[in-house]
Amino acid sequence: MNSYAAVAGALQESLNLALPPIAVCISDEVPDGVPEYDGRAPAGCLFWQEAAKGPFATRTAHHELCAIGVHTHHMANPPASYQVELGDVLKTMAGMEYVRERDVMEIPVLENETRYVIYAPLGKTPLEPTVVLLFAHSTQSLIITEAVQQVEPAVPPAMGRPACAVVPHAVRTGGAALSLGCCGARAYLDALTDDIAIWALPGDKVNQYAARIEILARANAVLGEFHSLRRSDVEAGLEPTVAESLARLED
Known about the structure:
Blueprint: H1 4-15, E1 22-27, H2 46-50, E2 56-58, H3 60-63, H4 67-72, H5 82-95, H6 101-105, E3 116-121, E4 131-136, H7 138-151, E5 158-159, H8 166-173, E6 177-179, H9 183-188, E7 197-202, H10 206-235, H11 242-249
Parallel strand pairs: 5-6
Antiparallel strand pairs: 1-3, 1-4, 2-3, 4-7, 6-7
Helix pairs in contact: 1-10, 7-10, 10-11
């Protein structure tokens, strides 16, 4: 897999994803030919979904309606209202005991200041991706988890609010993570339905993840059929051996 188009195709085919893999590229410059985002977004996580349509660049002004996103992505030159907005958001969340003071300190934040974030389908990314996002349901996540454990090896964390923190987490740890989203992301993203969560894969390892996912997807398909056949045989009153169930796969 020498190109991101090939990697994206392998991930799409192996996992049967509804949305293409999304490249998130942290950059100091906007590549030639990449347009700025045209519109207003209530939160930066909306860009993940919009990126499925094609590449675009964002700067702080595009993210500023979401103080939490500006915070987690350490966006450069935030507006004067940023600190007040962030304080109001955190105060409201604290009042509901949704976020405690010690929780705020544990939210992953990008270490370096971010000038631009370029979003694109992985197959059309204009830059090497900093992070690759996958919108996956539980069966797809099973395969991704198995692949991640073989690449890292480690058990990938499952993160909650805020959903955007999964990007700095992957950047700072160099490891994959699963975001279960947050109530905000689930309000803004149509693609983030009740059965979907978001995986963040470090871009410099995406080839390795894709290679293992391809193998494990094929294995899961075969083993899934194996177990389905055993279930039907046992429910029919049989007591098949493993060898007999394997032989049934060839029928």
